[in-house]
Amino acid sequence: DSYNGLPMIPGSSLKGKMRYLLSKSHPSGIIKQKTADEDSPEICRLFGSAKDCTMRNSRLIFSDMVLSNKKELSQKGIQSETEAKHENTINRLTSEANPRIIERVIRGAEFPLSIIYNAEDDADIISDFKLIKEGLMLLTYDYLGGNGSRGYGKVAFNDLEAEIVVGE
After folding, report:
1. Checking DSSP bridges between strand 65-66 and strand 82-90, what pairing results, if any?
2. pLDDT tens across 74-117, in order?
3. What is the percentage of the chain residues whose pLDDT exceeds 90?
4. Would you say 127 and 42 are in contact if contact means Cβ atoms under 8 Å apart?
5. In terms of C-beta distances under 8 Å and separation of at least 24 residues, what long-range contacts does 11-18 make, across chains too?
């Protein structure tokens, strides 16, 4: 975050990964379309579409998430919110190592999330929330960012709650 220098997760990253995972699982589990605008109607209803004939706003607004537990991590003796992980790729023909450094957020970092859901039709609310729940669950089995096959970018969601802020 350029304002305070803390690690952050752009809301658009979480939203985009969630949409992608849901698109893979609905309806056939295989991405056949070239763009997100060709997603299933329930996904387009929730995440929006920029296609001329079916243009619609997203019902979801994802906040950017900034590290929130720096003080707690500092009390555990952790001096930096990120760490450098040294890794190598090995040339299989020459056995030569190709070192690289990957910066990653440390384990235990917490990023509060806020999602605003704009209800448009009462008839869709239950199915929309089931889809949101499924998307969050799929994210916990996957990862955000790069190097997920190494276990980086794992996410968990805790203490979820819904609150009506406007209307009934």
Report:
1. unpaired
2. 998 888 888 888 888 898 999 999 998 888 888 889 999 999 99
3. 43
4. yes
5. 11/61, 11/62, 11/63, 11/64, 11/65, 12/62, 13/144, 13/145, 14/62, 14/65, 14/113, 14/139, 14/144, 15/47, 15/58, 15/60, 15/62, 17/139, 17/142, 17/144, 18/135, 18/136, 18/138, 18/139
Q: Which amino acid is at 77?
A: G
Q: Are 157 and 140 in contact (CB under 8 A)?
A: yes
Q: Of the candidates 66, 64, 63, which has an alpha carbon nearest to the alpha carbon of residue 6? A: 66
Structural contact between residues 7 and 105, judged by C-beta atoms closer than 8 angstroms: yes
The tokens for 152 are: 């980086």
